[in-house]
Structures are given as structure tokens and as C-alpha cells.
Design brief:
Blueprint (H helix, E strand, L loop, with lengths): L1 H14 L7 H14 L4 H13 L6 H13 L3 H13 L9 H10 L3 H9 L14 H22 L15 H18 L5 H10 L7 E5 L1 E2 L2 E2 L13 H17 L4 H13 L5 E4 H6 L8 H12 L4 E6 H5 L3 H12 L3 E4 L5 H12 L4 E3 L5 H7 L7 H9 E6 L24 E3 L3 E4 L9 E2 L4 E4 L5 E5 L7
Parallel strand pairs: 4-5, 4-7, 5-6, 7-8
Antiparallel strand pairs: 1-13, 2-3, 8-10, 9-10, 11-12, 12-13
Helix pairs in contact: 1-3, 2-4, 4-5, 4-6, 5-6, 6-7, 6-8, 7-8, 8-9, 8-10, 11-17, 12-17
């Protein structure tokens, strides 16, 4: 009776008055259906399908809610109907809309279908999503549920008397699903979250032959299995492709060709250097006003570490510096260790582009995440390599408090840069966090899979007989 009243109400508003009831009206009715349950669920789906056939504007929100109601009722065929309606109406489907669909498949023990649905989401998720991104949270939750279901169905595979259960998966099938999920993380270039990490550590060994443990990566070698991990460094061809992408991006952003060529000539003419310093970021980071004296302190620190450096600043930094700092900046410029960029130029990408082309092994000291640039550069061929290059070459820093200034100095290659992943080099006033040497994405190596985690650790997953498929 309720279903008929709703349908008549919508039809009256649409056909008699030329108006349609607000989306919130139908949403409220759906919540009522959800509370009542039972035989009201199917009519609610059919009502909305009929409204769509009458050219009622489709709503991704309502269709998602319908999917959730069907999922809670464990009605996979009805969930599929709603799913097809989403697709047929051309709704812009948010990742969250897939959650009730996959959960319904898992509730009905349609494990392979759930895995296939999840793997089909690759195109909806930006590569390298951070652990606080909503898409990352959703995916990690779904992967955790699929792993839990896989382990549960593998445990139930053998019934009493050794007979196979109709709703179980054998060890080979379970192993294949685990490897598919690992490859999924690889495609997305995402770390695994806390929930999946805990489940793998505690439950994976229940699938015959698998082993999982936390591990340390020292100079690209796994302490647990001895595998050598992939280097984060780009090959020559990748370097060239990325350089072209940066040039194209700079031109599209309005940087004059002469400006790009001029910057590259300046950088090329300077003898080999180890470090580029983002002078604007160093002087401004976590400070109320620009602090040029930091460049003086940092340059002294780098000299004591035996590192050759090149500092990039904008014109206004030099113009507004006091007499002491202005003299210091002029001295650096005379020595060929300072490059002054125009105030309104894309100075960070200009010097990065020049550095990548002429000094590809150089490191950058900056706390800038280059997020806007990274998003825009992704649109160009080869631009997807930019984030990887930054991950392997940008040195983060923190400004130490007064009482911590009397630290020691060591060359980074004799301290943490070569000895461990992302090591810390203390200095007089700056603490430098060196980037990792290994590519922090899921890797399939000789003996094991290696998965980076949300908390900057690694998991070593050894499959049965190290048979990597």
C-alpha cells in the first residue's frame, strides 16, 4: 500500500502539476522501506525504475541507497537491477556506490564476482592516492572484507569427513585471489592500510603455504627474504619522457620558451652539484615571515656535510633582504651557487625541469608536495613519472629547536642515505629526511611480494613454494 501511494504521488506531481517531488521525499520513503524491510524492498526498486522510464531525473544518491537496501536484504538479483539502472542512466558513479554492491556479493558468497567488481574499479581511483584520501579508505575497507571472506571460505572448504563444501574455495583459488588483490594495489600505486595490514599479518598463514611478516628494507634488500627491491630511480628513457612532459606543461602554463631555455642554460653551465635548495620554501616554511637567514644556516650545514648545492630564490627575496643577507646572497651568486628567478614565474617547476634534464641524480630540499603541479602534469604523456621522481629525490626538512642545534655532521652517503630507507641526517639547525631508494609500490620480486604500508613500513609476503604467478 505504501509503495502504491508513493508511485501515485510521484505520478500526480509529475503529470498533473508539472512539478516533481524533491529528492528528499523519495529518500525518506526509502529509509522507511529500510526500516520495514520484507516485501517493501522490491516494490521500491520497481517504483524508481518506472519513474526513470518516465524521464524522472536519475539520482546517484537514491540509486546508491537502493543498492544498500537490497544488499542488506541479501538480494543479489535485485542489487544487480539497481546497478544496471545506474549504468543505463549514465550516472556519475562515486566509488562509494560500489560498496553495497560488493558487500551484497560477499554476503551471498559470490566471492569471484566481488573480486571482479573490485578489480574493475581501477579507472575510478587516482594513482598514488594518499592514506587519508576517501577513495583509499573505501578501497582498503573493501579489500579487507574480501580477504576476510576468502580466508573464511578457504577454512570452510573441507567439511566433515574431508568432503568439499559447496561454498568453499580451495588453497589454489584462495592464493589466486590474494595475488589478484596484491596486483590491484600495484596498479593503484597505493600502500596497504592498517586493517589490511593487520589481517595479512594475523590471518594470511591460514591459507596453506603463505607467510607474512613485517620487514626492514636496507639499501633496497629485504631483511626477511633477501630479495632486492626495484629502484625508485628512473631510467634514461623515462628521464627524457618526464623532461618533455615538464617542458610541455610549462609552455601550456604560459612560461615563455626563452624563460625555459634561459633556466636550462643557467643550470647546465653550473658544475655538477648534489643538492637543489628550494630557497623560497626553506625560508618560508612554518614561519610567519620569510626568513632569509635560514639559507645562510642551511648552506653552512651542507658545506660541512661535503655536499655541493645550488639555491633557487625569487627576485623579491634578494631585493628585500637586509644588508647582511643581501651580501651573503650576492656572494653565493658570484660563486655560481645561486639562481634568481622572476617573481611571477613557476620557479619550482622551472628549476625542477632544468635539474631533471641536466642533473637527473640531484636531490631537492623542499617541503613542498607539488600537489597542484603533480595533478596537472599527469595530463601530459610521461607526466605520471613526476610523482615517482619527486618521491625519490625530494628531501624533506624540519627546523630544529634551539637546544638541538649542537648536533653532528656526516656525509649522507656515510650515514643514513645509503644505509636505510628514508634515513635522517641531523645538522646544526635542519633535520633532513632522505627519500627512499626503493620504489614504494607493491612489488613482485624473486621470492616474495613486498607491500608498502600506510605507516611507512614494509610487509614481506611469501607465497606457497615461492611460486609467484
Amino acid at each position: 500500500m505504501i509503495a502504491k501511494a508513493v508511485e501515485n504521488g510521484f505520478q500526480f506531481e509529475r503529470e498533473k502539476t508539472g512539478m516533481k517531488l524533491p529528492e528528499s521525499y523519495f529518500t525518506s520513503i526509502l529509509y522507511l522501506y529500510k526500516a520495514i524491510g520484507g516485501n517493501q524492498i522490491k516494490p521500491s526498486v520497481h517504483i524508481y525504475k518506472n519513474l526513470l522510464l518516465r524521464k524522472y531525473d536519475p539520482s546517484e544518491r537514491i540509486l546508491s541507497l537502493l543498492m544498500g537496501i537490497c544488499g542488506n536484504a541479501k538480494d543479489i538479483s535485485l542489487t544487480n537491477e539497481v546497478w544496471k539502472a545506474l549504468d543505463r542512466c549514465g550516472c556519475t558513479v562515486h566509488l562509494r556506490s560500489y560498496v553495497p554492491f560488493i558487500e551484497t556479493q560477499l554476503n551471498m558468497n559470490a566471492l569471484n564476482e566481488a573480486v571482479a567488481t573490485l578489480l574493475g574499479l581501477v579507472h575510478l581511483i587516482p594513482k598514488g592516492s594518499l592514506h587519508n584520501d576517501s577513495s583509499w579508505v573505501i578501497i582498503d575497507s573493501l579489500v579487507g572484507k574480501i580477504i576476510a571472506k576468502t580466508i573464511d571460505m578457504n577454512r570452510n572448504n573441507t567439511g566433515t569427513g574431508g568432503r568439499e563444501s559447496r561454498e568453499g574455495v580451495d588453497d589454489a583459488e584462495a592464493s589466486e585471489i590474494v595475488q589478484q588483490l596484491i596486483h590491484f594495489y600495484r596498479q593503484l600505486e597505493m600502500p596497504v592500510g592498517a586493517g589490511v595490514q593487520k589481517m595479512l599479518m594475523e590471518k594470511l598463514q591460514e591459507i596453506s603455504g603463505w607467510d607474512c611478516c613485517e620487514t626492514e628494507i636496507q639499501a633496497r634488500y629485504c631483511d626477511s627474504c633477501g630479495d632486492q627491491l626495484e629502484s625508485i630511480e628512473l631510467c634514461d628513457e623515462e628521464q627524457s619522457t618526464l623532461s618533455d612532459a615538464l617542458d610541455e606543461y610549462l609552455r601550456e602554463q604560459g612560461e615563455a620558451i626563452t624563460e625555459i631555455i634561459s633556466m636550462k642554460k643557467k643550470v647546465k653551465s653550473i658544475p655538477k652539484f648534489d643538492i637543489c635548495v628550494d630557497g623560497l620554501n626553506v625560508g618560508r616554511f612554518a614561519a610567519e615571515t620569510y626568513t632569509p637567514s635560514r639559507l645562510h644556516v642551511l648552506s653552512n650545514d651542507l658545506e660541512k656535510m661535503g655536499l655541493n648545492f645550488l639555491i633557487f630564490i625569487r627576485e623579491h627575496v634578494k631585493k628585500h633582504a637586509d644588508a647582511r643577507n643581501k651580501a651573503f646572497l650576492q656572494k653565493l651568486e658570484d660563486e655560481g651557487r645561486l639562481v634568481v628567478c622572476r617573481d611571477h614565474s613557476l620557479d619550482d617547476i622551472l628549476f625542477l625541469s632544468a635539474a631533471i634534464q641536466h642533473h637527473p641524480k640531484v636531490y631537492i630540499i623542499s617541503n613542498d608536495h607539488f600537489r597542484d603541479h603533480n595533478h596537472n602534469i599527469q595530463q601530459y604523456s610521461g607526466g605520471d613519472l613526476f610523482q615517482r621522481w619527486c618521491t625519490g629525490h625530494v628531501i624533506k626538512f624540519s627546523v630544529l629547536k634551539q637546544q638541538k642545534r649542537n648536533a653532528f655532521f656526516r656525509r649522507p652517503d656515510k650515514h643514513t642515505k645509503e644505509e636505510c630507507e628514508g634515513g635522517v641526517t641531523p645538522s646544526k639547525r635542519f633535520e633532513l629526511l632522505w627519500p627512499p631508494q626503493s620504489h614504494r609500490i607493491v612489488q613482485r620480486n624473486e621470492l616474495a611480494f613486498h607491500l608498502p604500508t600506510h605507516d611507512n613500513k614494509w610487509l614481506c609476503l611469501i607465497p606457497p613454494e615461492s611460486n609467484l604467478s
